[in-house]
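subagent[fold] <- orchestrator: predict structure for attached chain, return tokens only, no commentary.
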Amino acid sequence: MASQVRLIVLYLVWAGLWALVQALVLWPTGFGTKLIAADALLSNLLLALGGYAVGTGLRYYQPSIRQGTFLLGWSLGLAAISTTVFYWSTNTMFSDQAAYLAFVDDTLAVRVAFNWLMLLLMLLLSWLWFYTRELQEAEHRKAATEKLAREAELFNLRQQLQPHFLFNSLNSISALAVSRPEQARTMVQQLSDFLRGTLRQGNNQQVALEEELRQLQLYLEIEKVRFGHRLQVEVEATEESQNMRLPALLLQPVVENAIKFGLYDTIGETCIKVKATATDGQLVITTQNPYDPATQQPRKGTGFGLDSVRRRLYLLYARQDLLHTTQQDHTFTTTIQIPQHYEKMPDNR
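subagent[fold] -> orchestrator:
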């Protein structure tokens, strides 16, 4: 309703300005102030009504660019109607002004042409405005759809990681329940704490590294129950990197990948190293695990874990170069770079 009122006021202001211009043009004719003012105001009020009709019509029907003849015909029809109403009104109101009515007859063709050009201009401007707004709304709908799809994929990627870890943990708890019930109870509590933290971070796209490392520690405590003394983990983070931010629950699949390819085919102790530094305004996290090339051949990307992390990083930062891996001297290294400036996705609350 407010927009309609603003539109009407806009047309009235436009009509007033053009009425002033027309009055100045008619002043040299010498018909007097009353006739000149009536002529100018009536002509432009009718044009304003025609322009409002154009805007209202285009609100509900917008012809394509190829339907240019429709726009021409529409504007010409409105010009004819407005001129006819003007002609009838002046002949009714000023029937005793023969000289003025003769002037109206003489300028009738010019008035039709002027009205047509003005209405055509208003029609084209209104059509362009509605067409541009429709394009913007289409872009907004497309962006909203892509955003929803991206959020759904991010959620799906994170959800796919949890069952795998949960099944392994439950199997370990089952194995410990008979032989080492105290450890089984401890592992249940640790698993509960880890899953509670996962749910708490569910709507947060970014967390501080310090918080992410606390969540990672819960995961490692569970894995240490499974692997015992064989699993050794060294976590090092510089003071500058502690408050830098990264996507929530990003490190767990990376470390899980390191454990999988560092311990599964070995029987001795394995040390997983995680190091976080601040480099060129970015958070850089490296994860290293040893591997035996005689018993395993790490594949490029090394499994679903790193593929999902790489996909998450792309969806959040639109970059494919934020995760890379190297193999050297029986050590597999995963390096992740986290930019510290990007548009945060809103919480889904």
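orchestrator: received. Logging for downstream: The two ends are 31 Å apart (CA to CA). The longest helix spans residues 108-179.
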